[in-house]
Sequence to fold (569 residues):
Amino acid sequence: MDIKEIIRKHALKNAHDYGKANPGSIAGKVIAEFPDSKSDMKGTMKAIGEEAAKVNAMGKGEIEEALKNYTFAEKKIEERKLTLPNAVEGKVVTRFPPEPSGYPHIGHAKAAFLDYEAANAYNGKMLLQFDDTNPEKESGEYVEALKEGLKWLGITWDGKEFYTSDYMTEIYDYSVKGMEKGVLYVCTCTQEETSKNREQGKPCPCSMLGAKENLARWENMIQAEPETGNGKRYREGEAVVRFRGDMSALNTTLRDPTMLRIMDAPHYRQKNKYRVWPNYDFATPILTHKMGVTHIMRSKEYELRDELYFRLCEALGIPKADVVGFSRLNIKNAPISKRFITPLVKEGKVMGWDDPRLPTLKGLARRGILPEAVKNFVMSFGLSKVESEPGWEKLLSENRKLLEPGARHYFFVPNPIRLEIRGSQYHEAELKLHPNQDFGTRKIRVNDFAFISEADFSNISEGEVFRLKDLFNAKMVSKKDLIAERVADSKAEKKIQWVTDYVEAEILKPGDLLKEDESFNEASLELVKGYAEANISSLEAGRIIQFERFGFCKLDAKKAGKYIFIYTC
Fold:
């Protein structure tokens, strides 16, 4: 191929994979395939820019059609092995510790895959631990949702799952041990007093108390009923257990942080058995030790807490595990925060936790994102600590690569216009279900009319010859009267999508849930109405197909003779 064809080839590929052709990204591909292009980089970049502009003006279907004229060398990608410090083959134990306070999302998927793949890399095992020590937010519903999410991703955990709330006896034992050793104390200061002391680096007066007084206060925290115990029973918010750290430390997480607090809400699993609950910082060293975890993998937001973890282990006499950090994963303009999503669900602004605009696992599955695409996407970031907030396109690109070989092809026409076609012979056209795979054929009855899209119709000039894709050529006779006529086949510049026998179809097209200012985007779900070829009536809900020149779509439901699809990618 000459330089122009090479540029066009890579411009089309870049636009297909990332939604828009980027000249800077194309240049490297062109130079690699045609090194002589470096001799005139100014001219090469000009040609790339012009071709990128042309490609970006094309529709998605046109790009896919044009790409069929080119082949690309498959780049062999060696799977990167996750490397853990001090790892011993066959001895590595990781754990995935979600809090069951919401539905799992893409961030959970990244953490779970890293835990899972790191253990597999050393022939070790991954444990599932539910960090369920906040009775006000957690429920069995979310436990099941998290387990279902992991199974959907193809992640299996070793043995039974663990619950932090099942280890409250051990946690209480370590609390008492810590008070006896003088490394924990019960604080009854107000929040304002505590904040002021922390800010000024002043020791809390409660930290001066001896073990006997702290243990007496502890009894008044944990007692279930006011009439039991030897003194005043503390109410919620009146007392907390703190770690005696370093009030002058530059790392403020070490300034006597809270370890346990009173919460009187009934627990979904333990009911009213306990009223004093540990936070994540205190439960982590105890649970990971009891579970035999060798490597604690967590997002880098906990980085400042690593020192606290090591100090707690030392103070409580607990062996330390290795701590491995990685960056969090967010998708731009797609919130994962329960605080943001829950009001949208309650107000009916989204269809639920499985809304296809959401990066929840239920939302991704409903949209038609494959678990393998999620894995490829999240694992591409590895254990890097570099913060990133990619858009949807990278994930969708991974999904397209997986869907393309197996999705059956059908025709869909948005905003249809009925066009009379004179000279069309009544017959059955036999079209392939996939252009490159042997999936068989489907038959479409050809009439003396066809429905084409309003956009295609407006793009055809009167007297212009166009091709009804995979059928025959026609010439626009009268746009006013909506009449065309069949003409002899020849090379036609425009290929038009069409349907004859049809069923009504609606396609929900997800967009960014948030605007750039992080407010809710009212236009984030586009409704595209049109006609699909009648052959789709045999599809079962959940099937992903490709509507040619439109995109991959998943059949979400059949309602009153209408077929509702969700645009996948």
In short: The first helix runs from residue 3 to 18. Residues 409-567 form a domain with the Ribosomal Protein L25; Chain P fold (CATH 2.40.240.10). Residues 508 and 566 are 5 Å apart (CA to CA).
